[in-house]
Amino acid sequence: MRKDYSTLPRPSGVDELPEAWTESENSHQFTVTLLAFSWALLPVGFMVLMAVFDRYEQHRLTLAAVALTMLVLAFISGVRQRKSALLEPRVQLATATLASTAVLLALLFLLDLSSYWWVVYGLVFGSVAMMYVSLSYLASCNTPAVHLLWDVSVPIPNEALEGWRVVNGRWVNGVIATKRMEQGPVLTLYGLVEGEATLLCLEQLAPVGASPPPHAIDLDFSTFASLSVARSAEE
After folding, report:
1. Environment class of residue 131 by beta-carbon count within 10 Å: exposed (0-12), middle (13-18) or buried (19+)?
2. Which residues contact 127 (CB under 8 A, 6 or more apart)?
3. Radius of gyration from C-alpha coordinates of the chain
4. Distances (CA, A) of 196 to 82, 83, 150, 192, 199
5. Taking Cα atoms as reference points, which of 199, 211, 151, 153 lies closest to residue 173?
6. Which of 6, 17, 48, 187 is least surrounded by CB atoms within 10 angstroms?
7. Measured between alpha carbons, how far is 181 from 183 in angstroms, rounded to an integer?
8. pLDDT at residue 181, rounded to an integer
9. What is the 3-state secondary structure (H, E, C) of the chain?
10. CA–CA separation, 92 vs 154, rounded Å?
11. What's the pLDDT at 8?
12. pTM (2 d.p.)
C-alpha cells in the first residue's frame, strides 16, 4: 500500500475552481494501517500452519478469532481516513466478507461446531485478499480535498447539487451529500471544524490522475463560493 504522495502532481481542474475554494493538505497516513495489517498477518500465518498440521486443534477457532479481530482493527484504521470509503464497492465487499466471517465464527463458538473450522479459515484467508485490494485502492486515492469557509447558518443550496444524494440540508460536522459517478469516483461533500473555522469540504475518492474535472462533478462551485464570499462580506 502506497503511503507517500508528496511528489505527486496537482489534480487536473483544481486551478479552475473559484477563488474561495482552496486545496486541503493531504493528511491521510496509511503507515499505521500498514503496520496493523502486517501484524494481523502473523496469526493468519499460524492459521495456515494449523490448517496444514493436525496439532493444537482445540485452539483453531480461538486463533481465528484473534486473527479476525486484528484484521478488523487494521481495516477500520484505513477506512476511517476516507469519508467516502463505505460507498466504494471494494470496501463494501471487504466489509461484507469480514462481517460474514465474524457471524459464522460466533455461531461455531456458540453451537460448539469446531469441526467446521475450515469454513471460517477459508473466509479469513479470503478476507485478507479482499482487505488488501480495498485498502490498497484507498491508499492510492490521493486526490486532495478542496474546501471553503462556510457559515453554519447558511443553508446548503440543494439546487447546486445536481444528481447528488443530499443527506443534510444544512451544514453539519459530517457528511452533507454524496454522489457515485458512473464508472468514476465516489464524491462526498462534508462539513469540518478546523480550529474556530467551519469548512465545507469536497472529497473525491480517486487517484490524482483519474479525478474528473470540476465541470463533470455536477456541483455548482460558483454558487457555493458566492454564498461563502457574501457571508464573509457581511461580517
Report:
1. buried
2. 68, 71, 94, 97, 98, 101
3. 22
4. 23, 21, 12, 11, 10
5. 199
6. 6
7. 6
8. 84
9. CCCCCCCCCCCCCHHHCCCCCEECCCCCCCHHHHHHHHHHHHHHHHHHHHHHCCCCHHHHHHHHHHHHHHHHHHHHHHHCCCCCHHHCHHHHHHHHHHHHHHHHHHHHHHCCCHHHHHHHHHHHHHHHHHHHHHHHHHHHCCCCCEEEECCCCCCCCHHHECCCEECCCCCCCCEEEEEECCCCCEEEEEEEEECCEEEEEEEEECCHHHCCCHHHCCECHHHHHHHHHHHHHHC
10. 34
11. 43
12. 0.81
The residue assigned the cell 467446521 is 116
- pLDDT tens, per residue, the chain with 235 residues: 544 433 444 454 555 677 788 888 766 678 888 899 999 999 999 999 988 887 778 889 999 999 999 999 999 999 988 888 888 999 999 999 999 999 999 999 999 888 889 999 999 999 999 999 999 999 888 888 899 999 988 999 989 998 899 998 899 999 999 998 877 788 999 999 988 889 999 998 888 877 888 888 889 999 998 887 545 444 5
Strand ranges of the sheet holding 146-149, from the earlier edge strand across to the other edge: 22-23, 146-149, 197-205, 186-194, 175-180, 165-166
